[in-house]
Write a structure and sequence with these properties.
alpha/beta, binds uridine-5'-diphosphate, about 240 residues, 9 helices, Carbamate kinase, about 40% helix
Amino acid sequence: GVPEGGYSRVLLKLSGEAFAGGGALGVDPDVVQAIARQIAAVVRSGTQVAVVIGGGNFFRGAQLNERGMDRSRADYMGMLGTVMNCLALQDFCDRQGVETRVQTSISMGQVAEPYVPRRAIRHLEKGRVVIFGAGLGAPYFSTDTAAAQRALEIGCEVVLMAKGVDGVYDDDPRTNPDAKRFETLTHAEVLARGLKVADATAISLTQDNDLPIIVFNLLVEGNIARAVRGERIGTLVAS
Ligand code: UDP
């Protein structure tokens, strides 16, 4: 269950697609600013926030691979794309007056710190937002899996999986008006039904380590704070 008074340390997973706003490619500053505002409100309320951002608004390795590129090289391009999203979010968090550090799994000392888990924890304890870039630094993984791994390693109580819809449905709610939203699911149900919460590697990692996931709509202002307070929004995946 949710700890009394809400969660104290959370991992927020943002998809790259969210950063593009209405566009297909790149970063929409208005969207990133709105996300930063939500994060700042949560940090001010005393909850520690770590963030993992995807890169789907730039490159997805699997898609480039289908078009003939070497998979690993394409995946590295995907990872590098996530870092641009991290820098955009860092900028808007700074503007909100929230101190922010970016840590990347691929070293790039001019723009970010390397991923050092203990240092990340120290930043969080000082009220800084820590943004993890470049996924796990390894091809064939996703940023969903990176979110699960980072949450486990730095001791987050929950993964907040931000989406453009308000939870997990039994069918696509945009095409099927009768699609039903799940209030709760177990990790095993997500895997068995093939529900699109995250890829199977991420779900099995959270299942094995008893880490809950909340899938919720990022586009409703204040929703990150609601999820952090333990309000029942979206879909809770827990075993
Ligand atoms: N990626 C990777 N290893 C990781 C994380 C990401 O190779 O640990 C690559 C992969 O090619 C992926 C891309 O980076 O397609 C962008 O990440 P993702 O698809 O998870 O972004 P999202 O769908 O959340 O925007």
